[in-house]
Amino acid sequence: MQYISNYFKLDELGTNVRREVLAGFTTFISMAYILFVNPSVLGASGMDKGAVFTATALASSLGCLLMGILAKYPIAIAPGLGVNAFFTYSVVIGMKIPWQTALAGVFVASIIFMIITVFKLREAIINAIPHNLKLAIAAGIGLFIAFIGLHDGGLIVANKSTVVGLGSLNVSTTWLTIFGLIVTAILMTRKVPGAIFIGMVLTSVLGLITGLIHLPSAIISSAPSMHPTFMVALTHVGEINSLQLVVVVLTFLLVTFFDTAGTLVGLAEQAGFMKDNKMPRVGRALLADSSSMLVGSLLGTSPTSAYVESSAGIAVGGRSGLTAVVTGLLFIVGLFFSPLLSVVTSQVTAPALIIVGVLMAQSLKQIDWQQLEIAIPAFLIVLGMPLTYSISDGIALGFIMYPITMIAAGRRKEVHPLMYGLFFVFLIFLWILNVN
């Protein structure tokens, strides 16, 4: 016990083993929903839900353990919401790219991510993309996720007269979504730890009681086989042979990289780790994330990222890597609860997607709306993602408009050369999508 205390410097950080274990458990409860939401989202792409469940648990466990042991931060890692939606709805369904090829794209992006991290090129990339556009990407993904949740839950449906409209309240399963949304919103407002997870549990219980959800055959079982997805990414790397797929890989890289970087900095601020406006050991933290992303792609899941739900563990006193280690070990325990997948229907996960969308949309307040040369491209990114039902299309609209508005405002010298390069890349990307 003393070795653990010394390794994680618990005394120096003003914490103890008991507090760190409690923080790790709190973080896990707050983000355990990803075990059930990720298979649901990726399952829509045609991937085997059981295999994704196991891959999600293992990739999350590895990411948390690496973050805790190497970087020594109380920050958890798991497949990110938003980028998994991009994987399924934009790449596989929207672009009609097989999920196997998309998974290969995640693998390639993770290799690039690791190279960028090892050679310390992250600062150059971070500086190339304007801060306001990073915020817009996060907020846009939040709106996109919320839109998916509203649609999956039956609250928003297609409408020939108005494109979309309010779903019928005569559909009994829709009321599960409404119940889950209200309960989760109340719990979140009351700052109850694990609010999203508790909301999903209560919604599932209501569904079982009313007969809208069928009882599972069991509660505990052995972990589902990963055979349908294991190492599939490696055998399809050769299919990354078109500009369209290169842009997909780039988008996986950008979204994951900036989502993780932003979350890390935000959580470091919350925990008081920032020194001189810099985050110590950020390279190790990014290496932990990129490593879990690489392994996750080989196991069969979308990119991993740092989780904002780690703030729940930090809030109860988690200050060391021991918090993340405990969270990682709990993901291993979660492997044996796969039968509950049949209980977690789209109406159960929909409220979680909507609430996570709210959390991600909070970055809107930090965008400089007073400068139109910034506001217009940011707005196109934010609105473009849900309206085009594509994260990449939303990013393309904003990145194409950004150099134009900046030049018009006489600020062309402030635009990084990479942004001019991305201007042409996304122009070609949209043209390819249009002609196909």
Automatic annotation (TrEMBL):
Matching PANTHER family: GUANINE_HYPOXANTHINE PERMEASE PBUG, XANTHINE/URACIL PERMEASE C887.17-RELATED
GO molecular function, one term: purine nucleobase transmembrane transporter activity
Topology in membrane: Multi-pass membrane protein
An example Gene Ontology CC term for this record: plasma membrane
Cellular location(s): Cell membrane
Positions in coiled-coil regions: none
Domain of life: Bacteria
Alphabetized UniProt keyword annotations: Cell membrane, Membrane, Transmembrane, Transmembrane helix, Transport
Chief place of localization: membrane
Similarity-based family: Belongs to the nucleobase:cation symporter-2 (NCS2) (TC 2.A.40) family. Azg-like subfamily.
Transmembrane segments: 21-38, 50-70, 77-95, 101-121, 133-151, 163-188, 195-223, 243-265, 320-341, 348-364, 376-403, 415-433
Species whose genome carries this gene: Loigolactobacillus backii
Protein's UniProt name: Guanine permease
